[in-house]
Every structure is written in structure tokens, then in C-alpha cells.
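The instructor's notes for this session suggest beginning with a concrete chain rather than abstract definitions. Hand out the sequence below and ask the class to guess, before any prediction is shown, which regions might be ordered.
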Amino acid sequence: VELTDDKSQRHFFGAHLRSAAKGYLCLSGRWGLYARSRQLSATDVIHLRLDAFVSKSRKLKTIYLGGQLAVERRVAPGTIVFLEPNVESERKPEDLGFCYISGRLAQGAVGNALKKVTCFEDLAPHLEDQLQRSSSGQVKFRMRVVPCSASKGLGVWLLEGPVPKGEILFEYGGEMISQATAAVRERKYFEKNQMNFVYQLLPPAPAPGAKARSAATPVAMVDATHFGNIARMVNHSCDPNLEVYHHSSGAGKQNHIVFRAKRRIAAGEELTVDYNPGTCSKRGLEVVKRSNIKCECQSSLCRGWVF
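After discussion, reveal the predicted structure:
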């Protein structure tokens, strides 16, 4: 059985392969999970051999089916690396575009680490020693960073599930920064025409009938532009399976930005979050710059634009 083309999509059981130009898998069900685990590409050919065995008795006839699957590869698969426990990647750490860390750094941690290293390769181990550990930052389910498309870049696929609704999958890792520092950095990123990953979590909106706040102070601000974790690579969707949540933990009740399951998530799904849920939490400067970003989530609820 070969991958067949039907309206620009190739199908193999529940696994859908987009056109070779995009070159990534849309996973569905256990066969889709198998395809991702084998790193199949749109140019590979799948051969399936089925054997039928008939068992006859006086009152009952039973048919047994056996199968053998073979892959004829046209492109050699890349090497899978581990970024942290339960986090796999089809891209090497040095090819991610940022320094991967497995949690959140306190303010000033990067500056302190830079004073102790002589080369960039030594920076990550020093930063790991300064991470603010929390139970919400531990990745409990197996997932993988994979290339999606030229426009979307990398994405995160769940390889182990199901994940129940409300389960925390990971924390938004990066540098803890103040509002003043965030304002300076965002302006610099804007001037350099650089995408930034400064995330601010605002307190919940006032209850109906309660007095509205003039200006809400963020409960947490994290910059993952240069130092981040798995959360940095989660793509946008107008119908996401993740939601952002404020979680307090530790003796000092530190505020953490965590991503939790918005619904039950099955193995083989891409993990997504809404970058602009309802009202945009980004500052006006960034919103103006990115207001023309077209959405490519292809959801039935797609708004057409990210911001």
C-alpha cells in the first residue's frame, strides 16, 4: 500500500502527510503516532502485506489477519535527541535558535552565569544550576519537537497520552523580568525587527459587577526570547488544546505561567495554544507590529489572523 494523493493530501490509515513542500505529518490515531515515531516523510513509500488465515470448525469459521509493514525510505531520518526528560527533538539544541533550559530563571541569573563562563557551550550547565524548580515545570508526558512548515517553524507533538483535561503539561520557561525591563527589551526587539517571546500573565478579570481595575499589574513576566523551554515552541491555534494558567507553588508561593490541557488530548496531537485569547495581553507596540500575521492553524474556528 503506497501513500496516495487525494486533493493535495496523502493518506496512510489515520496518518495524513501534507504536500512534500511543507514536509510534515498531521497525526491521527495510533497509525499517525507510528508514522511520527518512525519519522516518515512525504517521499517515503509504505508497503503493507496482509495474510489471512481461516480456522474452520463444525459450528464456527474464524478468520485471522496478520500483517507486515515495511518502509522504503527516500530520505534518511534525522537523529532524535533529548532536550530534557520526556522531551525529544528532531532538531539539535544548537539548531533551535535559542538556548534551551528546562525551567525558569530568576532575575539576574543570566548575567551572573555569563561572568563564570568563557564560551557559550558552558552557559547552559551554569543556568541549569540556577533554575527555579517547581512541580509544574516537570514534563510528565512524552512529547517531541518537530519541524512543521517554513512559516510555522517548529512545533510540539504529544507522543504519550491521553492527557486528561486540566492536567499541567509544562511551565513557560525563560528569564523572570520586571515590567521596566520588559518595556526596554520589547522596544529593542521591535527596533531590530526581531520576534520576541516576552509573556506576561495578567490577573483574572474582575467578577461581574465588581469594580474594574484601571491598570492590572502582571502576576508574572517571563522572557523566553534567548533562553526558553518546550513551551516556547508551542504553535498558535484558534481552537487550541492548551490554555495558559496561573499556578502558585513553593514556600514563597511563587507565581508560574503554566500550560494545561483545555480538553482531553490524545497521543499524536500537536500541542497548541491561543496566542490571543479574547483580549490581547501584548502591549500596543507589539500588537501594531504583528497585527498582520495570518493564522495558519486551519481549524474550523480559525479567525484568519493571529493578532
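Then share the key points. The two ends are 43 Å apart (CA to CA). Helices lie at 29-37, 109-114, 123-128, 179-191, 284-289.
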